[in-house]
Amino acid sequence: MSLIIDKREYSSRLIIGSGKYKDFKQTNDALEASGAEMITVAIKRTNIGQDASKKNLLDYIDSTKYKILPNTAGCYSAKDAIRVALLAKELLNDNLLKLEVLRDKETLLPNEEETLLATKELTSLGFSLMVYTTDNIDLAKELEKAGCVSVMPLASPIGSGKGITNEKNLKKIIKNANVPIIVDAGIGTASDATIAMELGCDGVLLNSSIAMADNPVLMAEAMKHAVISGRKAYIAKRMKVSEFAISSSNKKDAIS
Amino acid sequence: MNITINGENFYVNDNLSLYDILENNYLNSNNIVIEINQEIISRNLWGETKVNENDKIEIITAVGGG
Fold first, then answer.
1. I need a surface site. Which of A4, A34, A97, B60 has the fewest CB within 10 A?
2. Per-residue pLDDT averaged across B36-65, rounded?
């Protein structure tokens, strides 16, 4: 039942982001409530002139307990993503990376050409890549061929909370894949995560749906159960849909 | 001399090391990585690496992100 990414086993199939929380304590509380074992972080400039005693996000996340997954958020070219990847590796002393190369600052949709280019280059440099991508079926296969350890198609745009808008493409990507397929972006609430898992996704990566909920810690717990439920339902295989009603009890024993 | 740190211009004394730069800006040296002119400088070299006129320094860390 466990998820294997880059030869490491995870009992949770939920990955959460660390953005948009009220403070680091809430980030940590949500992480714990979610049951996730992997958390994404962004690699950005530090604040100049900050209080040296002020804690950093990395001070709050127990790296012995959680896998920290740096991302290349804010990159719009393969060149920039490679630069951030190298910084992340230096910072965290690890080759695992969420590659994210976007095309436009407003749509925040992946730049497919630059994503593939960066995947090829970073894989050759020894990085283990979990690649954020569109739901382009052919590109998902190309990324796998290029050597990424996970393909992560969006379900709908980043931060939109629209849920799964592309079931058919996700199903096809899953059917074709030999690496874990993780839905990344677009999840709005627990039922969206369940649907993703029922489709056969290997995992779900989400951030805003927890952090922007009225009660993030409670939503984190809901997401934990949603992912588990969806996975179990996928394995159990749902009943066939019937056009008309079929009685649940045996007709011949009816009292007449 | 003039240098840039994280996109901001600074006027600093000559002959400063990267460690001096961190100290002068009250920066915690844990959980950061430093680039000078887009070249990563390993932590073990921060003491001996001197900053030069017009250097573009980036001090990078992990922040919240999805």
1. A4
2. 95
Residue corresponding to tokens 């600074």: B10
Tokens at A207, concatenated: 């951030």
Q: Is ipTM over 0.90?
A: yes
Determine the Cα angle at A147 with ends A129 and A67, to 5°. Answer: 25
> And the tokens for A46?
């530090």
Note whether A44 contacts B: Cβ–Cβ < 8 A.
Answer: yes
- Asked if B62 is an interface residue toward chain A (Cβ–Cβ < 8 A), one would say yes
Confidence of residue A151 (pLDDT cuts 50, 70, 90): very high
**Cβ B62–A92 below 8 Å, yes or no?**
yes
Spatial distance between the Cα atoms of A106 and A126, rounded to a whole number of angstroms: 32
Rounded-to-integer distance, Cα B34 and Cα A181, Å: 34
pLDDT at A252: 81
CB contact at 8 A, A148 and A138: no
How far from the centroid of its chain's Cα atoms is residue A68's Cα? 13
Nearest-CA residue of chain A relative to B4? A48
Tell me how close the Cα of B2 comes to any Cα of chain A, in angstroms: 16
Enter the tokens of residue B13. 């004394």
Give the pLDDT confidence of A8-43 residue by residue, as tens digits. Answer: 999 999 999 999 999 999 999 999 999 999 999 999
Mutation test of the interface with chain B: which of A14, A22, A38, A46, choosing the one with the most B Cβ atoms within 10 A? A46
How far apart are the CA of A177 and the nearest CA of chain B, in angstroms? 24
Share of chain B above pLDDT 90, in %: 85
Contact yes or no for A53 and B28 at CB 8 A: yes
The answer to whether the beta carbons of residues A81 and B62 sit under 8 Å apart is no
Helix (H) or strand (E) holding A71: strand A67-71
User: Using CB atoms, which residue from B28, B40, B60 is nearest to A45?
Assistant: B60
pLDDT tens, residue by residue, B18-40: 999 888 877 777 899 999 999 99
**Cβ <8 Å between B38 and A48:** no
